[in-house]
Amino acid sequence: MRASKYLIATLKETPADAEVVSHQLMLRAGLIRKLASGLYTWLPMGLRVLQKVETIVREEMNRSGAQEVLMPAVQPAELWRESGRWENMGAEMLRMKDRHDREFCFGPTHEEVITDLCRNELRSYKQLPANFYQIQTKFRDERRPRFGVMRAREFLMKDAYSFHVDQASLEETYRVMHDTYCRIFDRLQLEYRPVLADPGAIGGTGSQEFHVLAESGEDAIAFSDSSDYAANVELAEALAPEGERPAPSREMELVDTPKARTIAELVGQFDQPIEKTVKTLVVQASEDVDADLVALLVRGDHELNAIKAEKLAEVAAPLRMAEEAEIRAAIGAGPGSLGPVGLSIPVIADRTVAKMSDFSAGANQDGKHHFGINWGRDAEEPEVADLRNVEDGDPSPDGKGHLQIKRGIEVGHIFQLGKKYSQAMNATVLDEAGKAVTMTMGCYGIGVSRVVAAAIEQNHDDAGIIWPEPIAPYQLALLPINANKSERVRETAEKLYQELSELGIEVLYDDRGERPGVMFANMELIGIPHRLVIGDRGLDKGNLEYKGRRDEKSVDVPVEGVIEFLRDKLGV
Amino acid sequence: MRASKYLIATLKETPADAEVVSHQLMLRAGLIRKLASGLYTWLPMGLRVLQKVETIVREEMNRSGAQEVLMPAVQPAELWRESGRWENMGAEMLRMKDRHDREFCFGPTHEEVITDLCRNELRSYKQLPANFYQIQTKFRDERRPRFGVMRAREFLMKDAYSFHVDQASLEETYRVMHDTYCRIFDRLQLEYRPVLADPGAIGGTGSQEFHVLAESGEDAIAFSDSSDYAANVELAEALAPEGERPAPSREMELVDTPKARTIAELVGQFDQPIEKTVKTLVVQASEDVDADLVALLVRGDHELNAIKAEKLAEVAAPLRMAEEAEIRAAIGAGPGSLGPVGLSIPVIADRTVAKMSDFSAGANQDGKHHFGINWGRDAEEPEVADLRNVEDGDPSPDGKGHLQIKRGIEVGHIFQLGKKYSQAMNATVLDEAGKAVTMTMGCYGIGVSRVVAAAIEQNHDDAGIIWPEPIAPYQLALLPINANKSERVRETAEKLYQELSELGIEVLYDDRGERPGVMFANMELIGIPHRLVIGDRGLDKGNLEYKGRRDEKSVDVPVEGVIEFLRDKLGV
C-alpha cells in the first residue's frame, strides 16, 4: 500500500480522555476514532488488524467442526420473555420499538435466538452434537463505557453455541473448544491463560475464561508455576498451611490498645508481626443459623473472599457486612476490637487462621486486644473454611508448585450452560429410543475487537505498538529517505515495493514525502514489525538499512541480497 | 464438508408466506430462516454464499483503491439533526434511546457518520480524492418487509463514500466505481445492466443503478439492443416518431359514444385502431400557470410518465390527477369524454401525439368523441413534451438501435452526491491556495444480501437453485449410493473426498446415508453446480457418474480419470 493513498491518521498528542495505553495508542496510531460514547469507527489501519484476528478465529472455529451462521442483531422481545431475561437484563440491554410498536433489542448475546433456531431445525439425536458460531456486532449499553474498544458499547464478538444429547457430549465439545481457543491465542502470538472462572450471571456448570496477560488487566489471575492450573483470584482455592498447628508457647494476655482500631495500627504500635494477627469480620447470617450475625476470621494480612464466604450455609447471600450498631448490640464492642475469645456469635475461621497459635485479636471490649490467643485453650476450636483470596507464593491447589498472581484481560469465555435455555424454551430432540429429551448446551465467546486492544496492552513500548506478526496491519514499512531529491532512492524504493508486493508481502510504502523522523516515528507508533530504509548514504555502499520493531539497532543489508534477507526475516 | 456434520436444512414444502421464488428457494434449500418480520438468520449453507459475494465485492473495492473502514451500526441523533435528516427519515429509521436517554438510530445508511469522520481527518486537498467503504449490517424499518432477504429490514450492505476537491475529481472516481461494479457483477456471473436512474430522495447530480435482470424484478428497465444505453423505464427518453406528421386525410366528425368512457371501450365499440386514439389526462397546474388545471395528452396505448410530467414548468409537483368535480367545473364534461378540440385549459401533447393525424379523442361533452381530429385545423398546435413511458421497440434515445424492456432487481447504486452533506455539515479541506473548500462527495452502494436473492431469481429451475459457480456454497456434490451396504462405494467415496478436498475443491460429501432420490433432490434444490455419483452399478464397469446442474443427462467417467475430468470441469 502506498501511504499517499491511505489514511495514515496518526496523532502527536495523547487524547485527554484515553485512560489506558491501548486506547491511547489506538487513537494515536490512527486505528480507531470515537463516534460517540462507547462507539468507535475502525479506520483502515485498525480494521486490517481486526480482520486478521477475525480470520484466525474463523479458521480455527471451522477447523473445530463448528458451523458458521449469521443471526440478526435486532431480536424480538418475545424470545427474551420466554427465557425470562427481558426483565433481568436491565439497562445494559438496548431496547427499541419498531414502527408497529413491537419491542426489540439490539442483541447483547444470542442464546435465545440460537435456541429458537435449534428447537426448530434439530429433530434427532443424530444431528447432535452441533456447534454454531457467528462473528457479529453486539451492543451492551455499559453504564460507563471506557478504555476505547476494550469496554465499548458496540463491539465485534465471536459467539458459539453447542447442542448435545447429554452432559458427556457437552464436555467433549467443551474440551474441543478449550483446545481451539488455545490454538487461536497461540496463533495470535499472545501470552494468555485459560483460567477457572465463576460462571456468574449466565449460570451453568463449568466455565473457563481466557485472559491475555497484561499489567493493566482488570482481573487478577492466580496460576501455578509448575502446572496448567489457573483460576480467577476470586475462585482459586486457598489451602491450609502445611503441617500441624504449632503448640501454644505463651499465655494469653489482655492489652490496652486504645489507638489500635485496625490491624495496621496494632502492628505499628505493638510488637505483633502481622502474620500473628487475626481480623474478625462480622456479616449477616443466613436464615439457617440461629443468630443474626456470623464472625469470619482471616489473618491480618489476608483478604476476605466474598464469593467464597457467600457460599457458606451460615452466611447470607449476597454478602452483607454488619453495621457498627448491629455489632455493638450483639457483642458490646466496635468493629475495631473484635476477636474469637468469648464471642457470642458463630465463628468461622479461615484455614490459615485455624492453623495459627499465639495470635492476637480484639478482646470484644473497646480499646482492648488479646495477645497470645490459642485455639482450644482460649477460644473454642472454630468451624473452618476457605475464606480468603489466594496470594502470590501460596501453594497451588492442584498440589503442583506455587501460585503466581498476574493481571489479565478477559478475551474469551467458555461455558457449560446445561439446560438453562433449552428447558425454558423447550428445545428437545428425539433420543435413540424416540423419546423427547431437552438438549444440553454450551456457549463460547471471544471478544474479537477486545483482542486487538489486549494485544496492544501486552505489546507496546514508549514509541508505540509492537504488533505480534500475525495481526500486524502491514508486515513491512518501506521508507525512502529524500525520495523527492534522489532519483536513485525513488527508483530503488519503487522497484522493491513492486517485488515485495508480488511476493505477497504486505508492504506499507511511505511515499508521502515526509521527513525521515516523521516516517520513523509514525511506523513505530503504528507498530509495523519490520522496517527497511532506503537512503543515499546506504546506497553509496550498496546497502539498505533493516530494523525489526523490537531491535535496538538497525543493520545494513546489501541491496542485492535484501529480498532473500526479508523472506527469511518474515518467513515467506 | 461431510453432510452428516452439517446443517442440511432442506424443506419439502414451499413455505406459505414466501411470495417470490428466491424467498421460497432460500427457505427450502436451508439458506435462511426467519426470526421475525424482515429479520433472517443465515444458516451455514446460505452464509457461505453471502460470504463469497462479500469477498468478491471486497476484492474489487480494494483493487479500485477504496479503503475499507467499519463504522458503528448505532448512530447518535445529533449527526442526523445536523444534516437535517433526523426528521425527514420518518418511520423507516429505527430509533432508540440509550440508558442516559440520548437518542440514537440503527443506521440505515452512513453519510452523516463518514462526513463527520472526514471533516475531522481530512485537512488538505493532498489527501483527496479518498474513497471509504464498509461491508456492514444496516436496518430499514420497511412498512411491509417481504420477499425474504430481498426486502428485509436488517441487511448486509457495501456502502462507499468518496470525497473530492471538485466535481471533475468526483466524476473520475464515479467512473472508476462504475467500472468496479461492472467487474463485481461480471465476477458474480450475473446478467446485469447499469441503468440511468432517478437520483430520487438522496439528491445529487448523477446516478446509475445496477440491476440484475430477472422476470420477477420490481423495476422495468429499458436498454438498447445495439449500445450500452440503459435506463429505468421511468427515466428513459421517449423520442418522437421519425418523419413528418402525415397530412389530414379526413374530416373531423362528432360521434355519439355513450358507452365508451375508456380507450379500451372506444376501440372495442368503434372502428378506431388504438394507435389513432388520444387519452386526455387532467392534472393540477403549477403556480406558474394562469389556470388551475392542465391537460396532458398521450396516445391511447401509451402510459403517462409521472416523473416526466412533474418536471414540466406548467405542472404541479408532486403530480396530482384532477378530481372529476374539478374537471366538470372547468370543462363541462367527465374524464371519459375529454379531448383537445376547443379545450379551455392549457394542453401539452406527448411527442408521439404531436405527430398524429386523423386521431380520435373525447369531445368535451359527455358521451361524445371527435373522430378524425387534426392539429392546426381542428385544434390549436399544442405545446409538445416527452410525457410517456418508453415501450419495447421504441428507438433508443442515444440513436443506436431500439429499446428492449426487461425487469430488473436493483442490487447496486452509484450517486454523485455533490455537496449536500458536506455543506450541511461543514466538511472542508484547504485547497492549493490555502483556502477552505467544501468537499464534493459521491456514494456507492451494493446490497450484498440482496445479491444472493437476485442471483436465485435469475438462476433457478423447477428443481431448485442453479448457482453461478463463483458463489455456489459448494462446488461439487459427492453422492455415494448405498454406502452403508457397499464397502467399495464407501471406500471410493472417502478416498475421492480426501483427494478432491486436498486439491482445494469445495466438496459437499453426502455421507448421511439418505436414499439416492433424497440426495439428488437435496443437491439440486441447494443448487450445487457439479455432481458426482458413486454406485456399484457404475463401479462394476469402472465408472462414476457426472452431471452438471444445468445438464440434461449424466455422463460416465472412468474412475481413474475422474480427478482430471473434474479439474477440467471446475477449472482448478
Automatic annotation (TrEMBL), chains A, B:
It holds the Pfam family HGTP_anticodon. Belongs to the class-II aminoacyl-tRNA synthetase family. ProS type 1 subfamily. The lineage of its organism: Bacteria, Pseudomonadati, Pseudomonadota, Gammaproteobacteria, Thiohalomonadales. PROSITE patterns: AA_TRNA_LIGASE_II. It is an enzyme of class 6 (ligase). InterPro entries: aa-tRNA-synt_IIb, aa-tRNA-synth_II, aa-tRNA-synth_II/BPL/LPL, Anticodon-bd, Anticodon-bd_dom_sf, Pro-tRNA-ligase_IIa, Pro-tRNA-synth_IIa_bac-type, Pro-tRNA-Synthase_IIa_type1. GO terms for molecular function: aminoacyl-tRNA deacylase activity; ATP binding; proline-tRNA ligase activity. It catalyses: tRNA(Pro) + L-proline + ATP = L-prolyl-tRNA(Pro) + AMP + diphosphate. Consists of three domains: the N-terminal catalytic domain, the editing domain and the C-terminal anticodon-binding domain. SUPFAM superfamilies: Class II aaRS ABD-related, Class II aaRS and biotin synthetases, YbaK/ProRS associated domain. It is found in: Cytoplasm. Keywords: Aminoacyl-tRNA synthetase, ATP-binding, Cytoplasm, Ligase, Nucleotide-binding, Protein biosynthesis. Homodimer. Its EC number is 6.1.1.15. This is Proline--tRNA ligase. Residues 38-468 form the Aminoacyl-transfer RNA synthetases class-II family profile domain. The keyword Cell division does not apply. Catalyzes the attachment of proline to tRNA(Pro) in a two-step reaction: proline is first activated by ATP to form Pro-AMP and then transferred to the acceptor end of tRNA(Pro). As ProRS can inadvertently accommodate and process non-cognate amino acids such as alanine and cysteine, to avoid such errors it has two additional distinct editing activities against alanine. One activity is designated as 'pretransfer' editing and involves the tRNA(Pro)-independent hydrolysis of activated Ala-AMP. GO terms for cellular component: cytosol. One of its GO terms (biological process) is prolyl-tRNA aminoacylation.
